[in-house]
Amino acid sequence: MADRPASALSLPEDWPAHPEPILALNRMGSFDWDLDAGLFHMDAQAYEVFDLLPEEYDGHPESLSVRVPPPEAARLDAVVARAIKDGSENYGTYFRIRCRDGTHRWTHTQGYIRRDGTGRPRRVVGIIRDATQELADSEARSLRAAQDEAFRQQTNVVQVISAALAHARSVRDVIDALQHTHGIRHLGAASLVMGLVEAGRIRLVAEGPAGASIPGTKITRIDEPYPMSEVVRTLTPRFIESPEEFAGNYPILWPGLTSLHITSAAYLPLIAQARPIGAMGLLYSDRRGFSEEERAVLVALGSSIAQSLQRAMLYEQEKDLAQGLQQAMLPRTIPSVRGADVAVRYRAATTGGGLGRDIGGDWYDLIPLPGGRVGAVIGDVQGHDTHAAAVMGQLRIVLRAYAAEGHPPATVMARASVFLHELDTDRFATCLYAEADLSTGVVQVVRAGHIDPLIRDADGTCRRITVEGGLPLGLSAEFGRLEYPVSTLELDSGHTLLLCTDGLVEQPGADLDDGMRTLAHLIAKAPDGVRDLADRLIRMAEERGGDDDVALLLLRRRSPETPRPGGRLQQHVAPGDPEALSEARHMIRAAVRAWGARERADEVELVADELITNALMHTEGSAIVTLRVLDGGGGRRLRVEVEDSSSALPRRREAGEDGVSGRGLLLVDLLAEAWGVEARGGGKAVWCEFPVPSGVCG
User: Fold this and answer.
1) I need a labelling partner for 249 at 20 to 30 A (CA). Which of 121, 272, 341, 486 fits?
2) Which pLDDT does position 218 carry in this prediction?
3) For residue range 442-468, what is the model confidence (pLDDT) as tens digits?
4) How far apart (Å, rounded) are the C-alpha atoms in residues 273 and 386?
5) Pairing state of beta strands 361-369 and 373-381?
6) Are 473 and 395 in contact (CB under 8 A)?
7) Which neighbouring-strand residues pair with 624?
8) What is the model's pLDDT at position 11?
9) Would you give the DSSP letter of residue 451?
10) What is the C-alpha to C-alpha distance for residues 235 and 223, in angstroms, rounded to an integer?
11) Angle, to 10 degrees, between the axis of helix 132-165 and the axis of helix 171-180?
């Protein structure tokens, strides 16, 4: 190393006497590195960059080690050596220097390699500058860009969460939307706690992950020193930016959080209509502090959650009210029926159409009747709201009253239709009423715009029973068509009668007949017991969902038990209604066989037919045929009564050779064991009796 100071060193001939002013203005110094001589020349600005005085430097690059730490020097030498070896014309890199006061400063150098004609490097000239502020600005820009990106991500998360919350219909749905959309995780939070305000207290309703809450904080008072209580009291968010702040402000809560390694937290009041309904806490384990943008995002998130919670809470309240009304309108209990197994089910619609839509006018009922009979009802009032449920309740009560008064099925339905019409409501209803004598298996069915019933045989076969019907209730009175034809069918032992509303059958875009066939196929494969079968059907309805209620009634006839006297069936036969006469014959034939007089069924049917025909031909109005079993001193007897409104007594007449009338009472006298006439108010009843073998079911 030369003894002369660096300022006295001879400079290269082409060294600029006056460096560009722009270099000095930008705190850039220049250098000339003579590779042959091993000398590193610098101008005055370069000395300032290295924080050196001229007398402190001897011109050799090694002497700069006082300012360039060895790791930085090694990295700088590697950059220069690689550029020379690769044949590059220039290089550039950042490196740090150690200033006079011991602090570090970032610098940047850019050198240009000059070679001779053979390509050998001879000199390196270039610049060196202070890059501290540049890197600081770059770091700030990178940080700002990262913050902006994080803000965008958080905003997107809020949008995703808000979209999920829009479909929430319960508090549980709101909580699931926060946890299952991974929104909290994307916001960077390690755990979540949420509480709802109830009667001056905060009840914890969510924590995630499990154990994020502190023992003893499941229910807390609003005046207790907890952050959720504080934000509910003040209606102001609380941002806790460090563990020290958490521990200092909430010394009771903090010890329980140390195992979660919480570094910061954001507690947000959940405010709806200027009223606090709860609070939410987001706890972080990898951050300190919150930017203004992050705070704004979290406040917006809290507002969205509060609105969704309020909607969910109102919906749940309305749903509870609606379901309570629905249950109040349906029968509280279903009576046990001797000779049958019964199951009923109801499923509310899941329409998603707003508050009050999970209630409708579907109903079922089972009505015990005299003589061992039972009435089964299924119906559906138009609409899905509390008004439909209210109309349903009134209609169910009056239909039950009409049936209990002893009116025949057609009359029950007609009177119910008039009642609904006189309610002065805009609703109509479909209904099916089946009156069954379980001792005989005879079932009389009337239908008012409702879907047909189904019967499942003992072997599992299921079939649809086509029943002639009339107009829906309420419409028949309006259009003056109160006729409801009565269909008669037989329900053998082990057979199940199924009545349901169309919510179990209909699907959007599907044909009703296809739906009935599908239902029959499903019933055929279902369990035999009525309760298991009902559970299977209602579970199918729940899995399928849908916007209609489902009401279901199953009645399975058991095998006859011990003999029981007093069996009774009754049928109204209107004049000019051949179908009614045919149904009466069918009822009589089925009942006689069921009561153990099968061998005389044809005779009883013939006698009853003669009595009914006589009443229709020789009197005005309808005839009422009653079939019953009597148990007295003379043994068990089957009694047929035909009642009409005329007081004129029947008389025997001798029929001529070609006569077609006058033989009715002769047949009665010949075939029946006894017969007679009884006065009935303004009319009469002609009766006859046949012996029934002992031990049969009455």
Assistant:
1) 272
2) 82
3) 899 999 999 999 999 988 899 999 998
4) 26
5) antiparallel
6) yes
7) 572, 643
8) 44
9) P
10) 13
11) 150
